[in-house]
Design brief:
alpha/beta; 12 helices; globular
């Protein structure tokens, strides 16, 4: 029996779903390390692929049993990224049909069970993507943490660190955020925090891991944390508006994906209020399926049409 493999290459982990081609039954799901080429470590990415294909081989017995494999990952619009990911796949012994596309496409397909609608993703980074009934597409955001990614986990982590230093030097009022950050990072002074932030080994993922502290502080009524949640929602709302307007999707639900939207009710509820005020027919919904399953759906459609991307 042939298999379909869907891979969602996120900023902190890679999710894999394997299904039977004909029965559309999920055989297994598992996670591996990140395969994000932008800012990722080549050695770590290669290790992630080896780990993935080790598990895939155990499930499928032979890679020749795979009818189609689809990878959704960030940055694949750049030819070098797509070539690099394909090279990793081929070096691990898979020679069959392969689709490599943007992770926003697989996330959209999984969220709506169709390549139509709007997906808003706020994880380590942030992006919004939509497709209307005419097949027209528009994307906002997703241009990386140095110049973009507003409302993302990285954005929140960076702002928490900013609040810490500004609270400690007197520019901001009292907050429990510094104590929470110190505890999580195992530091006790501003100087140690600065050393962590600017150390060459500190990655955007480590900054993004601080994001859940905002929710913890919000739950305790911390004013600065609540303001940050509103700020985060405002930045995410800015991503949604052009997608709604350009594609004329004023009544399309917006699927909310990524750890920020799915784990912080404060950000989610603040975003819902903004949508209700400007687009009362637009509702925030949870995705029907995750992006790895979306990659499976896309792979199935490609297998039926006999195409690769």
């Amino acid at each position: 029996m042939a298999f379909i493999v869907g891979i969602d290459g996120g900023g902190t982990k890679t999710a894999v779903t394997v299904t039977h081609q004909d029965q559309n039954v999920v055989v297994c799901t598992f996670t591996a390390g990140p395969i994000n080429y932008n800012g990722g470590d080549a050695t770590a990415i290669a290790a992630s692929f080896r780990d993935m294909f080790h598990h895939i081989k155990q499930v499928c017995t032979h890679l020749e049993e795979i009818a189609h494999l689809c990878i959704g990952a960030a940055g694949v619009s750049h030819p070098d990224v797509a070539r690099y990911l394909e090279q990793q796949v081929r070096e691990n012994g898979y020679t069959g049909p392969l689709t490599i596309t943007g992770d926003q496409e697989t996330a959209l397909y999984g969220a709506h069970n169709d390549m139509q609608g709007i997906i808003l993703i706020a994880g380590t980074g942030s992006i919004c993507f939509g497709v209307n009934d005419k097949g027209e597409r528009h994307r906002t955001g997703g241009f990386g943490h140095l110049i973009d990614d507003g409302g993302s986990g990285y954005f929140i982590g960076r702002e928490l660190l900013s609040i810490l230093v500004q609270t400690e030097d007197g520019r901001k009022g009292a907050s429990i955020i510094p104590a929470l950050v110190y505890k999580q990072l195992g530091r006790s002074t501003v100087q140690e925090i600065i050393g962590f932030v600017y150390h060459s080994s500190t990655t955007k993922k480590e900054i993004a891991r601080l994001a859940p502290l905002m929710t913890t502080a919000c739950e305790q009524g911390d004013v600065l944390a609540l303001q940050l949640a509103e700020q985060c929602a405002a930045r995410l709302f800015e991503l949604v508006v052009p997608v709604i307007e350009r594609l004329r999707l004023h009544e399309s639900p917006v699927a909310a994906a990524g750890s920020v939207l799915q784990q912080s009710r404060f950000v989610r509820e603040a975003l819902e209020r903004r949508l209700a005020q400007s687009y009362p027919q637009t509702k925030l919904i949870m995705p029907l399926h995750d992006a790895a399953y979306g990659a499976v759906l896309l792979a199935q459609s490609q297998a039926l049409s006999g195409k690769s991307m």
